[in-house]
Amino acid sequence: MVIMDSEVLSVTQIDSYQAQAIEQKWQKHWEETGAFKTDTEDTARPKYYALSMFPYPSGRLHMGHVRNYTITDVVARFKRMNGFNVLHPMGWDSFGLPAENAAIKSGVPPAKWTFENIDYMRAQLKALGLCYDWDREIFTCREDYYKWTQWLFLLLYKNSLAYKKEAPVNWCESCATVLANEQVIDGQCWRCDSVVIRKNLSQWFLKITDYAERLLTGINNLDGWPDKVKLMQKNWIGKSEGAELSFPVSDHPDLTIDVYTTRPDTVYGVTYMVLAPEHPLVEKLTTSGNKAHVETYQHEARTKSEIERTSTEREKTGVPLGSFAINPYTQEEIPLWIADYVLVDYGTGAVMAVPSHDERDYLFAKKLGLPLRQVIRRSDADDTPEFYGDLGILCNSGEFTGLSSQEGKAKITAYGELRGFAKSRVQYRLRDWLISRQRYWGAPIPIIYCEKCGPTAVPDSDLPVKLPEDVDFSVQGQSPILTSKTFMSTTCPTCNGSATRETDTMDTFICSSWYFLRFIDPLNANAPFDKAAIKRWMPVDQYVGGVEHAILHLLYSRFITHVLCDHDWTTVQEPFSNLLTQGMVLKDGAKMSKSKGNTVDPDEVFKVYGADTARFFILSDSPPQNDFDWKDAGVEGCYKFLRRVWRLVIDNQAGIDLSLESPNHEAIQNSIPGMYQMTHQTIHGVSQDISQEFQFNTVISKIRELVNALSKTTPQTKDPVFSHAIQILLILLAPITPHIAEELWHKLGGKGSVHDQPWPQANPDALVTDTVEVVFQVNGKVRGRAQVARGLEKPQLEQLALQNEQVQKFIDGKPMVKVIVVPDKLVNIVVAS
To answer: Are 611 and 127 in contact (CB under 8 A)?
Structure first.
């Protein structure tokens, strides 16, 4: 990339740093020259796929977006300069309820609202200087994308992985739609915070449970994922091993109630059984005298969310059915109850209650005066309490008395298997993915209903099934699609008879479950993507996004990728090799929100300080995995630092020559003492911090130190060491502050673009030194650094830390708790907060 002399802004002829003019200039140039376009045919360089979770076009970027996209942008630029062929795309997760709500409120069609927001947010992303290949931009709400989302649904449907059934679902009255379990947070809708109730509806599901074991074992291969995210997915999948036991029903010789338990060793302690209020046998097993109470209780249960029903803090309630089951191990009759803490779609919808050894059963039994029977005692004591939930030694358990719990589980299950009323079983907490939404702004489900042929898939040749435009958004409690006069009536593709279309649309998480594949081949009109291209570019090498997507988006994307791999559309089962979950951006210690009045508008930051300052600051204070507390004074400080870099180059421009060869031994000896060594130590430190842990805050700290050292020198004319150090400084800054680095590079006559320069390699000889860098921390946060003699004793290190000016700012007037010294590495001063 070459800039002609006539293109250089006149502002660069003076000593002032005018960030906005510089940034607009280079953004325009990068766009016009296609500077960051990916050549997918280039196989000479190794590939690197860098991806941020794409945004919902809500209207404006927030500082969380700025942090997310800056992190990925630095990685993409760094990899590009290290010789990788980088794919770094951006698009829009553009279906969803907010656009529909906007249509209801203001009468603006969802598409118009969405694309106006996209236009504004795209301009903001470009103003941030992100190195996206904009030729790959995708929109999940456009027909050229959701055609293939519908194709994906049909792939699942044709392979028995999509089905429709009537089931109790989570219903949000405010949004007038169903929610997946993962979209109910503390009993409330994840979007509008309204209370969620349970309601029976006929809905479409995806059989993610068929992949439960593979998704679970696959977690072991996700070495580049945070442990907390892997644990969250393991817990959500929730594998358990136990037994399914069949309990005959008294007076109903043809009926049995099946229960799943992880504690078959406690079966001799069953004193009653509990069915979910929605269990299909409840009506048949309810006696006439109990019918009124049971029906009232069932109605009340339907108004409660799953989270509320299963809360351990909520008082247990229930009513008896009036009938009895028989414990097949003891032949004892046990009463049947219903209680809302049992869920019909978890396990079998019924539980055997062992109140002495299960906490929920214990609380229920104590509340309602039901009997307790101890069948497990502590292995090391006889004084077992009334309630004991751990493993131990079986007691009061017939021929199994005296066995350990583990032995008892196996032998009691085997005993029941021989007699036909037990079998070993693995259970998962994971439930099938509910995808039906009774809303308009989503991908229509491509199914046709014919009275003669039944549910029928729309032929691939007829995709996409387009959203109708003749809809009324003011309707309440139903999908606006039902108001269309043109959508529902169609022809059966099998018999050519009259038929109707499915009016539900798909959960938007289906759109985002495969978008990373479409980015690789976004203009393909004949297939969702080219298989050869997918083989070349997948998996995503680095994925960056919020930890709030650990269950919903990340689990669904893994499932869809597994399915596509099974059907030869991909060669990888796991979509994301490495995952970084960035922390939130806070203000005054709290999450930014309009209601708190503590939001920061990125546009205002760009306007006052420039995008480079925003990028520099958002990376400077803490590791990307941690929360970041926005401080206005910190922004000002970063702006002043970039002005300092500007003056450093401008003031010494006449003495800098980037065309000089790398300094030789004589030049190093005759130049600024230690400058060459420090330059290469900075190269080494910055390279390590980016490539290993993405510790951008320490990267910035090291760059600051190099600038401090350079600012204290008075270089000789055309000094090769000083020129070399400035050249390295601009290259190291380029991924973080791309505009100022590019401008100064060209002012100094650098060849091509600074972003096309190879990443510098540290000279090993320059890293050998009699001194080491020691980090000074206060309460675990880096507050200073110093070069000290290797092997310096602990007392001297502690004294140096306490005397450091930066450290003193954070310990002044605070009681000191302790000082931790690690020789040659760090001093951590712990003070009372």
So the answer is: yes
Which of 745, 737, 763 has the alpha carbon at shortest distance from 658? 745
- DSSP-derived pairing of the beta strands 422-428 and 239-249: antiparallel
- Give which of 537, 312, 268, 196 is closest to 415, Cα–Cα: 268
Residue 79 Cα distances to 47, 607, 690, angstroms:
9, 29, 10
CA distance 588 to 609: 20
Residue in this structure with the two tokens 């027909």, named with its chain if needed: 143
pLDDT band at 10 (very low <50, low <70, confident <90, very high): very low
Question: What phi and psi, each to the nearest 5 degrees, are found at residue 370?
Answer: -90, 155
Please tell me whether residue 825 adopts helix, strand or coil conformation: coil
Q: What is the dihedral of CA 688, 692, 696, 702, to 10 degrees?
A: -20
How many Cβ atoms are within 10 Å of 719's Cβ, its own excluded? 24
The yes-or-no verdict on residue 601 having pLDDT over 50 is yes
Q: Which amino acid is at 405?
A: S
Rounded to whole angstroms, the Cα distance separating 30 from 33 reads 5
How far is 532 from 520, CA to CA, in rounded Å? 10
Nearest to 554, CA basis, from 536, 568, 574? 574
Q: Check whether 216 has a pLDDT greater than 50.
A: yes
The stretch 208-212 carries a mean pLDDT of 97
Confidence (pTM): 0.86
Mean of the pLDDT values across residues 50-54? Answer: 98
* Residue 13 predicted with pLDDT over 70: no
Whether residue 455 contacts residue 362, with contact meaning beta carbons closer than 8 Å, is answered with no
Round to whole Å and give the CA distance between 541 and 224: 9
d(CA 426, CA 686): 49
Q: Which residue has the tokens 């941020």?
A: 52
3 state DSSP class of 431: coil
Tell whether the model's pLDDT for residue 98 goes beyond 90.
Answer: no
Q: Give the pair of three-digit tokens for residue 196.
A: 């969620």
d(CA 786, CA 798): 12
103 Cα distance to chain centroid: 29
Residue 106: what residue type?
A: S
Give the chain's largest Cα–Cα span: 104
Give the DSSP letter string of 68-134. Answer: HHHHHHHHHHHHHHTT-EEE----B---SHHHHHHHHHH---HHHHHHHHHHHHHHHHHHTT----G
